[in-house]
Amino acid sequence: MSARPDSGRVVPLPLVSSHSARRSAVTCEYRCGNACAHEAPNTSDNAYFGDIVANVLSRRGALKGSAVLALSTAGAMAFGGTAAARPAPPHPESGGPSAPGTDFDPVPPNTEDRVVVPEGYEQRIVIRWGDPVVPGAPEFDFHHQTPEAQQRQFGYNNDFAGLIPLDGAGRRNLLVVNHEYTTETHMFPGYDAENPTEQQVRIAWAAHGQSVLLVMRDLARGGLTAEPSRYNRRITLNTEFEVRGPAAGSDHLKTSADPSGTRVLGTQNNCAGGVTPWGTMLSGEENVHQYFAHADRVTDPRTKRRLDRYGFNAGASTRKWERFDERWDLGREPNEANRFGWIVEIDPHDPDSTPVKHTALGRFKHEGATIEVAEDGRVVAYMGDDERFDYMYKFVSHGTMKPGGSAHARRHNMGLLDEGTLYVARFSGDSPAAEIDGSGALPADGEFDGSGEWLPLAGGAKSYVPGFTAEEVYVFTRLAADAVGATKMDRPEDVQPNPVNGRVYCALTNNSNRGTPGHAPVDETNPRIGNKHGHVLEMDDDATGTRFSWTLLLVCGDPEDSNTYFGGFDKNRVSPISCPDNLAFDRHGNLWISTDGNELGSHDGLFVVPVDGPQRGHVKQFLTVPNGAETCGPIVTDNLVTVCVQHPGEDAEDAQHPTSHWPDGGDSRPRPSLTAVWRDEGGRAGEIGRR
Ligand code: FEO
Ligand code: CA
Ligand code: CA
């Protein structure tokens, strides 16, 4: 079924997975090990009976407290569960004023098997899975893949991308891209999931990690081209990483292959990330649990409890890597699990540099990390733990940033993330709890808003969490955050400071279990039962301090539904948006949002929304991605936008029956790729969002 672009309405899509209404079963299996088909691993009772009921009791009395919980349960039936996809709302009016940088005709919701961009915009593929990266790498050959070729070619399932200029004009740049995960059933013809071959497993190890590439921007005519260069590099599951910071060398990180607990082979499930002000790339190791087998063979109850909190599963793993390297078998090497789930840092300027795992930033399912430089020069890293009912974190360095782009300054600045204080967020709403009824209806004061505090977990060798050593805080951060009563959030993805207005934004993708029986109820920060479309949080944070105020900028979904909110903007003029994931900012301070798992019957897309002035909340869709794909890693500059198109055609049963032919068309197989978009001004690249 396809869109009818003339009307802008789309035909509902069939549901293809019981896990997430719009993500395919294959995506769920290979990306996160069916995380949402399992019970969320946060079974702690903090901010559940502890905070919320106490709050209700103190304000409303015991009877009203019971009423709120009962209402949450009833509401769960009304709003939760897996509702069928239905037609997306009409194309918003394109008339009316637009904020600077957002003046284009929005792309209507659609289900086209291509990247759909606004009228007057051009696009070109920059690089695809299998294209050569390291000089001398062979061209991609789908039917004759080898680990040796893949470890020199562009990896699979590109997620975050960062652009690091090498000159003042921004013509020569380093492009750093995450390869989040492999989808073996689509990578290999005739793949037998029960009996993968060693060759296939080794290709998958080489298809994870990162790519570093030199890219040239055509500043006059638009576009971005990959070039062979000495910078070009692949980082894979075979690349050695140095573990640094306060948990380096900890007993929890020691294995038979690495008795020092300081050297780890590889990185995995690298989701989002951030480019640092000193020109390196940070990347989050996210759903690392799925690569490990046999958590049930761990007998020590304490170790077992720790593995459970991170979602490690019993039995064989999806990819069966444990058959080829016993480090993936928790029964044999339980500590190998603790060597993943970190923020890693890559210095793309030096292709021989050893990438780093920063233990001071804690261990969880890291979406990514983005940096703000405080007035006093200390650096703050904002981070989300992307799991239902998990937390938001920040890290404040002890040292201060050295300006300048020298290798010396870069080495110093990479060290900033080794020593500092790690915090987790606790939110409070300012409206009476009874006004947060789970429907998404705004409370009487007109906003979901309130205040919050950052609770310290550890700083250097000092733990602030009773019962936890500092090493335990860093390695088992989720459990430490449970103990201090952090606020359970609806899947915190990107958390990113806006360089123009200084406020911090967080994409909360969705949470099918919010407020449903047996789970944490709604609160003002996560106000919808069975939150299907997600929301975007805005914080006014004292970067190095411990207090903040917050408000919900967007409560996503169909603008025609009363349970959505678009910053107070006229909902007749906005694009529908669902499941916000990655964030970026343009030079005007507009927030760009890519989505993962649109629940409104359209393909995923990239959107822009002004956050200040009269157009605040005026969401406009800038592009959509092909069948089965997710929009990832947007880069937004004055005259170039790029997105990573992840898992195109992932609703296919296997490699022989592709459901997408993007990007090569015809009857080709889909390939995850990065594409560049620019405004064509009569053969010249014009400014994005300006007519
Ligand atoms: Fe890999 Fe949180 O998305
Ligand atoms: Ca309020
Ligand atoms: Ca993501």
Automatic annotation (TrEMBL):
Residues 82-111, 650-691 are annotated as: Disordered. Signal peptide: none annotated. Pfam families: PhoX. It comes from the Bacteria. Residues 678-691 have a biased composition (Basic and acidic residues). SUPFAM superfamilies: Calcium-dependent phosphotriesterase (SSF63829). This is Phosphatase. Coiled coil: none annotated.
